[in-house]
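Researcher: Last one for today. Full complex below.
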Amino acid sequence: MPMTPESAVAGPYDALLLYSFGGPNAPEDVVPFLRNVTAGKGIPDARLEEVGEHYYGFGGKSPINEQNLALKAALEAEIAKRGLDLPVVWGNRNWAPYTTDAIDELERLGARRAVALVTSAYSSYSGCRQYREDLALTLDERGQLGPDGSTGVQFDKVRSYFNHPGFVQANVEAVLEAFEELERQGGNPAVAKLVFVTHSIPDTMEAASGVGHATYSDQHMDVATLVADAVAEARGHAVTWELAYCSRSGPPSQPWLEPDVNDLLTERAGQGLTDVVLSPIGFVSDHMEVVYDLDTEALATAAELGMTAVRAATVGTRPAFVSGLVDLILERAALARGEQVTEAVVGTLPAFPSVTPPDCCLRRDGEPSGIPALCSKDMHR
Ligand SMILES: CC1=C(CCC(=O)O)c2cc3nc(cc4[nH]c(cc5[nH]c(cc1n2)c(C)c5CCC(=O)O)c(CCC(=O)O)c4C)C(CCC(=O)O)=C3C
Ligand SMILES: [Fe+2]
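Model: Here's the assembly. Have a good evening.
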């Protein structure tokens, strides 16, 4: 294998864990999958039935697993291109291959220390700590969680990468393509509003996401500003934009981040808005939240309102995104080796911590989870 520049060293890591949410592959998977996702979360049955219907409407199969396999293949190709020796293992929190299956695979490969890359770009309980808790719980079930960290495979995590230049660049490219598509559909890009969309979370989770760093919604505001500015510059006209949310669940009494994307479209249509580009910056691939909540629901809302609306692509396997992820892995490796590293970031926020403070991204503000979480200062060796 030819050696590429000195930066191309993955040590101390001997494997990469591509760590995702998981989704059902067949109708009979849907209910057990939803049980895995919602265990102890207090989500009303009516919401679960509704979400189950979203999956059945797509043949009981989420696109997420194939998308993760595509991302795995793209990462493997980029890793090979850089001359790195870093096998990629895929695992999910909520469906097969489960976290424990991935750890089995890592052990088969003889891996001692793996770097984990989660398929969430932003920090909150759902996108950060819940993965770290799942790793700790899984190692514990396997009898591999020592008092100061794991006694089995050791895991380090790549920092939340919403403000990495590769992620932002890939979103800019996708939004520019969507503006062109809007024009092809007879819309008027010069007056189109750019509506960024992400997953809503409870207000309590939003507050807890801001311990030691910017909150989940502020992280999105930074990315949205960067993408909108770059798009306006490339297109040579002003672009107005807003941030909206989708996929709210939980009881109606519980406040979640708003506005909902459908409500926003309805309100703006009433004020004369005719053209919309939806940019799903909160998601890295076109999984169920995107193909149902945006492509099915929000685009139907826009059509009913007589708008011309186009949904921009997610970053998926775009080269700028994939190569940025490999840069992040190499950056994490250099940090683990104790080297001085300039962390690549864009926007107004700093690079997020790779090893988080103990109370970072709790599920609810001020309420310790009681669950250990890996890649945290109190757990790290
Ligand atoms: C911030 C965030 C992301 C974005 C970051 C990221 O991309 O990871 C995300 C992604 C995803 N969420 C997904 C699916 C679900 N999320 C649920 C429930 C919840 N999500 C939450 C937050 C997030 N979720 C929250 C606060 C809940 C309430 C329960 C709780 O407090 O945890 C439920 C239960 C039913 C419902 O309530 O909707 C389902 C089925 C899938 C898989 C899609 C597929 O199958 O293609 C993906 C990628
Ligand atoms: Fe979710």
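The beta strands are 15-20, 88-92, 113-118, 145-146, 149-150, 154-157, 193-199, 240-246, 275-279, 308-311. Residues 21, 23, 34, 37-38, 41, 43, 47, 51, 62, 64, 119-120, 124, 126-127, 199, 201, 205, 247, 249, 282-283, 287-289 surround coproporphyrin III (ligand 1) (CB under 6 Å).
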